[in-house]
Amino acid sequence: MMNLTLETPAPPDPRSIWHPTHLAAITVITATRRELGFTQESFAKKIKWPRTRYAKLESYSRQLVISEFVAISAGFEIDPGLLLARILRWATDGRGPLGRLILAP
User: Fold this and answer.
1) pTM for the whole structure
2) Is the distance from CB of 53 to CB of 60 less than 8 angstroms?
3) Which of 55, 17, 18 is nearest to 33 (CA)?
4) DSSP alpha helices (H): ranges in 3-65?
């Protein structure tokens, strides 16, 4: 008789680009860019990034750092706290719709 045991998987590494919160952040950022009518190229120009740098972020090829998050929020003209709240809502719920976009005054 085979002895099978179930192991609890280790929690994801918070530094990983595959961490659920990072995936939620990129999902929400991508959706927000689209909702505001930007292409990757037009948005990258607005925040003064090369398009390839921005595209790598949206394709989950690179980690998002806080200074970039602030630059992206400014490019969206959204308070970073509101964008973060939207990301955390998505990460918690794990489902859409993303909800109504609230622009900063």
Assistant:
1) 0.74
2) no
3) 55
4) 20-35, 40-46, 51-58
